[in-house]
Design a protein that fits this description.
Blueprint: H1 12-18, E1 21-24, H2 25-33, E2 37-40, H3 46-54, H4 58-66, E3 70-72, H5 75-84, E4 87-93, E5 96-101
Helix pairs in contact: 1-3
Length: 104
């Protein structure tokens, strides 16, 4: 008789951590052009914020959006990123790409 090995379920944050990557502005430009970049403020944890999107925690997401700690990237952001050609931590929470600037 074969025994089945069970693997523990991953939390949303653990799953998202496996899907998070460092990415440069050059690679993100096409997502910006499609209006899909969502900026996560540096004071927030990227994975915790992404988990709020994934688990449909609309009250928390609305709060983050309304106080400006999370916002859809704007042309001024793109202009700055073109100059500094920065790096980001990014995670896809379809259809959005949540990004957080890496401070050099």
């Amino acid at each position: 008789m074969e025994s089945k090995k069970t693997t523990p379920e991953l939390t949303p944050e653990q799953k998202l951590n496996l899907e998070t990557a460092k990415i440069g502005w050059q690679e993100l430009q096409r997502f910006f052009a499609q209006g899909l970049i969502v900026v996560v403020g540096s004071e927030l944890d990227l994975l915790d914020t992404a988990a709020k999107f994934v688990t449909n925690d609309s009250a928390s997401v609305e709060s983050l959006l309304s106080d400006g700690r999370v916002y859809k990237a704007e042309i001024e952001d793109a202009k700055k990123w073109n100059v500094v050609n920065g790096d980001f931590w990014a995670v896809v929470v379809a259809p959005w790409v949540l990004v957080q600037e890496i401070n050099s």
